[in-house]
Amino acid sequence: MKHSFIDEYSHLNSFIHKLDPRTKLVAILAFILAVVLTPVGNWHIFTAYLCVLIIMLALSKLPALYVLRRSLVIIPFVLLVAVFIPFFKQGQVAVSYDIWIWQISITYDGLLILANVLTKSWLCIVALVLLSSTTKINDLLKGLRQLGTPQVLILIVSFMYRYIFVLADEVMRLKQARDSRNFGGSWLHHMKTVGHILGTLFIRSYERAERIYAAMLARGFDGQVRNLRNLKFGKADLYFGTAFSLILISSYIVWL
Amino acid sequence: MNKVIEIKKLLFTYPDGHRGLAGVDVDVYSGENIAVIGPNGAGKSTLLLHLNGILRGNSSVKICGLTVEDKNIKQIRKKVGLIFQDPEDQLFSLNVFDDVAFGPINMGLAEDEVKQHVDRALRWVNMAGYEQRSPHHLSIGEKKRIAIATVLSVDPEILVIDEPTSNLDPRSKWSLVELLNHLKITKIIATHDLELVKALCQRTVVMDEGKIVADAQTEKILQDIPLLRAHGLAH
Question: Cβ A220–B95 below 8 Å, yes or no?
Fold first, then answer.
């Protein structure tokens, strides 16, 4: 079975792709921090951030539509959390409704914060899409490891990435087996079947984990994870790192 | 010829009380190709898991003169390359290179040595150039070959393979048989595939219900239709 995966365009060959994953990780984290820390309403700075992202996207040769589509995934989640802000924020009232005995009003300040939250989260997610689409997951994890992320977290993510599609295939097969024997029945009965599928999936995953562990032991695993260190900083990393920090610092100076 | 595997009265009971092995005796000599055949649940896989100490019954297994116990386990796992039935379990890394390099890295080899071992192992199984591929996107035949490479990369003396040809189409199967035929090391193969047994192994061990019921030359066993029928290997 083929599934799409998060590092779909990571095989492309561009300036951004060739940077050391650590450079990209630090740059993107710094970028996100800068975006989050920018005070409300500084639209010209947000525009500057967007320009930085657009330049990087252009350099990375990623299809613009793909990045846009991926980045919009986050919007519903942000809305879910932030949609009530305009109703609760104090300030000058923009519109006001009377619903039976309640009066509901939306304030300008609240709307500004909502727009701000949406902009910030969208900029951050575009930056993350840029990172994950230009770096092979393997290199990304290696970079994270060398930047000091605990090994156990790296292992969890790497096993998850390796086996999530195997599990997805297993779920699909279980569902097909259910559907081909499904002759109606009550809603309650269906829920019971879903429970059985989940249970089966858990047991299968557990047993697979034991087999994988046995396979690791068979090849000399003794609890210590060893890696080859083959990430290298190049001149490109130096140029990119310097340029990127200059941009972030200058946006701060502009704000002052 | 020297004995590479010596098993005497091996007993093993699973934690749930199910008896896996009920007294297995078998000796394997250097350079032999042995098939272990038997119906489902006969204890073939259980026996194989004892050969490098993943399971330990009553510690009556000796590999190259070394008893399978904690102090020898590292050496034994280097000598015995165990290939699991489902390559999805065998290949747990994010790309082929890391998977094949896992064994050599655990042996503590230096970086360029690791690369040499990986290159050589991949060339042996005709999969050079697959280093950066993700295991999930390979065909089953390719996965099986890479799984063999992950074990060959540590230069084992004994290759132990569980169901090498299950789920393979005839073409992949025969190319795998050819590949195994070219590897000149001791091989122990658990399978139901009698064509494979005939093509690859000189000696055959028949197992049923945790015991060895026959141990002879392959030709003799394969001609003994009543024996095969009694143990679910012919109809």
Answer: no
